[in-house]
Amino acid sequence: SDGILYGPLRSERADCEVRIFNPDGSPAEVSGNGLRIFTRYLWDTGRLKSRRGSIESGGRIIYAQIEPASGDILLEMGRASFWSEAIPVTGAPREVLEERLEAGGRSLRVCAVSLGNPHCVVLAETPTPELAKTLGPLIEHHPWFPRRANVQFLQAINRQMIRIEIWERGAGYTLASGSSACAAACVARRLGLVDGEVTVRMPGGELRVQIDEDYAVTLAGPAAPICQGELNGEFLLAAGQ
Fold first, then answer.
1. Model's pTM, two decimal places?
2. Which member of 87, 191, 204, 232 has the lowest number of beta carbons within 10 Å of its beta carbon?
């Protein structure tokens, strides 16, 4: 899978907590797609008592709202930060905007942003899967990023739409990512390329991102069940559970 959601767990700060793990076993602080899926699961199983609830993830509180008629789920993702200490990015304290990063023999124009997890947005005229697969792992593990980075290759299509290709920290090439969509949209807004409401086009589909004046971010998009099952008890015993 693209990731594992473990929960709901008891939280002293929110309605519940979820822990998120990447395919390589590393923890993920937050996942926009994962939290939309988790919200849908809470609703379907009756654990969400109203259309709006709060979820603790990676030390942050995310507010989620489900729209049953459309199937859309809205997440209040918090405020984006471009400051190097928050992301984190090595070097002098600064906003990491339109800097040059060397990777794969190329000089790339990049911005970095945090939404509770680290992102590096590469400004690219034509994002392609090959570009993401070639440069993504180099940027993920670049010395600039002590906690590694999620990487987005960004093209602004017009004032209301961007397109991205994604290399996700701990997961590799990814068809869609909620937090990546938010990070890329925030960078595009900060650089004056888009307005406050942005559709983010990815190979796996589209999500909508709203960015307030103070860079508070709301993510919107659908989530639908695919299947359900049970892990065999013998397997769980063998796994020490």
1. 0.91
2. 232
